[in-house]
Amino acid sequence: MANKKINTIAIFSVFVAIVMLQTFIPCLGYIRFFPALPAITTLPLTVTVFGILMGPKMGGFLGFFWGTLSLFRAYTQPADLVSIMLFQNAVIAIIPRFLAGVVPGLVGKLWQQRHSTRNYLISVAAGVASTLTNTLMVILFTSIFYNHSSKLMSCLGYTDTSKSLIIVLLTALSFNSACEAIFTGILTPLIVVPLRKVLSKRL
């Protein structure tokens, strides 16, 4: 039991270090295609892999840590006005990231080691679900906190304030979300399957 806890802490520490590197090293965790929009992030992949391997509780912890770093980064290293307006809000910065860690852990509970094809599909589904959870929760909370913000609308390139903010956000972030979902969905099984085999012998 003690060895299992030590291994869990060690694995968590490794993933915390990876999240920190992705957060603060340019073009590693955040890839920017459009200057006015938030960057495409590769961090859901890291959180998804950890959530599947370690379960929803630990996945939530890592997601919460990612969200806290997002909040810190929005104040110390803001890259664009949209990110400043969104991620300097603790709810928008933290809760979607927390849920992005919990969801793949819950999906990962469906894992059946005897069915490799099913395992592959489950890991793909977990990766896509984590990414979409993060994006949709950011959009939902943004529409709640900034429902009548003409400043945010103008930053997104919309001068017609009569449009629904949630529709505008879905349109503006659809490219980001699609890229993140494809990236995470493809790479998650390639990382999770061998790691799970190794960890199953240690935990």
TrEMBL record:
Record's keyword terms, sorted: Membrane, Transmembrane, Transmembrane helix
UniProt KW DNA-binding keyword: no
Ranges that cross the membrane: 6-31, 43-66, 86-108, 120-146, 166-193
Any one GO molecular-function label of the UniProt entry: transmembrane transporter activity
Annotated protein name in UniProt: ECF transporter S component
Protein's organism: Lactobacillus iners DSM 13335
